[in-house]
Each structure stands twice: as structure tokens, then as C-alpha cells.
Amino acid sequence: MRKIILYVFITFLIINVAGIALGFLYSYLPVHHPQKNKQACESVGGEWSDEKNMCLLSYKESGEQCTDGGQCISGICFPPALSDEQKIAIAHGSIKNIIGACYADEFASGCVKQVIMGTISKESLCLDN
Q1: Who has the most CB within 10 Å: 2, 21, 55, 108?
Q2: DSSP letter string over the chain?
Q3: The pLDDT of residue 21
Q4: pTM of the entire predicted model
Q5: Domain extents in the chain
Q6: Residue 51 and residue 30: Cα distance in Å, rounded?
Q7: 81 neighbors 93 (Cβ within 8 angstroms)
Q8: Which long-range contacts (CB under 8 A, 24 or more apart) does 15-18 make?
Q9: How far apart are CA 124 and CA 108, in angstroms?
């Protein structure tokens, strides 16, 4: 019985360490650092400055168009109303190239529908299965 508990504990520990390591690796992907290159900058709605060799991001006010919450003062890019075809498509995966509007409330609580890097999914829309 002690061996089983030990194996379960070691397995649990290994899974958690692996998860933390993958999280760190994920955070270092270029898409999470728009300041690193032109493609990453433009993918989050920034403008690349060749003169300054940097990404110029402006934070948008409530109601302005966005493709990611990182572009908005509130940190949330709210999706547009979906067509019937998009509602069907979202059940089978994500939808790309979506333009939303910056959300008004900086202190949103609970699950708020979001456009994330120009994409919406069931998860980003807070939808159950």
C-alpha cells in the first residue's frame, strides 16, 4: 500500500513539474512577445517601426476595434455578434480573423466573452460543450 501511495505521489509530482515547465516554454513563444519581431507585432494589431526596431502598441478605448485584449485598456476584446454559420462552426473548433470591440469594464468578473489573437472558440466564449 505504501508503494502505491509513493508511486501516485511521484507521478503527481512529475506531472506538475512538467506542466510548470511547459508553461514557461509556452510563455517564451514569439507570439507572446510582440516587441520581438514584425510578424508577432502585427499579429496582435501593433505597428512595427523599422526606425526604432520595435513594436508600437496603442491601448484602445472602449468600443474601438481590436483582435486581442492586449490592445485594449480594459484588457478584453469583446467578440461581435455571430452569424448562424459561425455559431455552427464554433461547435467544431475555433474561428479565426475575428475583429471585436474593446470591452468597457476594466474590472470584469466571471467569464467574459473574448477575442484572443483574432480567434474565438467555445472556451473564449464561455460556452459549455
Answers
A1: 55
A2: -HHHHHHHHHHHHHHHHHHHHHHHHHHTSGGG-TTS-HHHHHHTT-EEETTTTEEE--PBPTTSEESSGGGBSSS-EEPPPPPHHHHHHHTTS-B-S--EEE-S-TT--S-----BTTBB-TTTTT---
A3: 64
A4: 0.54
A5: 1-32, 59-129
A6: 21
A7: no
A8: none
A9: 14
Smallest CA-to-CA distance from 66 within 54, 82, 49, 79 is with 79
End-to-end distance of the chain based on CA atoms, in angstroms?
38
Here the cell at position 99 is 475583429
For 29, half-sphere exposure in the C-beta direction (CA atoms, 13 angstrom radius) is 7
Cell of 91: 461547435
Each residue's pLDDT tens digit, 85-129: 988 888 888 899 999 999 887 666 778 888 998 999 888 888 654
